[in-house]
Amino acid sequence: MKDKKSLIIYFSRADENYFGGEMRYVDKGNTEVIAEYINDIVGADMFKAEPLIPYAKDYNTCIEEAKTRIGNAKVKEKLNDIKAYDTIYIMSPIYWGTYAPELETAIKDLDFTEKTIRIITTHEGSGLGNVVADIKRICNGVVDDKGLAICGSSAKDSKLVVENWLKMQ
Length: 169
Known about the structure:
With about 170 residues, the protein is α/β, with parallel strands linked by helices. The chain contains 5 helices and 8 strands. It has helices spanning about 30-40, 60-70, 100-105, 130-140, 160-165, and strands at about 5-10, 15-20, 20-25, 45-50, 85-95, 115-125, 140-145, 150. Strands 1, 4, 5, 6, 7 and 8 form a 6-stranded parallel sheet that branches. Strands 2-3 form a two-stranded antiparallel ribbon. The relative contact order is 0.20.
């Protein structure tokens, strides 16, 4: 199942996260856990969209900060070229019904022509949110309408779910 022409572009945040009704601190964000599973399975390159100004460690402040960054999030580094890749995995937790603002900054100027885009979200009840429609709006590639939504509190136990989803693609 290894595919050297795949790239994972993701946003993930550690620190305090929402897990099924309660807050809990984590050393690694749920989306990063899933990105690493995909990397283990398909052998993709990875690019993490990191905010230029880190989010607050507590969850409630973080989500308010994310709201103010919608449409203008600054990132530490951007990708300039994805020509070498056939399949792009775009991954994010759900923030305000869609992907994290930093993910949009990371992908909005890339040329997705003739790329296959696979979408994965982590969430605590939002599923894919508006991510598929929002990515279709800014990316000119083929977008997998099915996507994969993984409950963040189940991320560490979802490697088999991810593997089965990848086999169906």
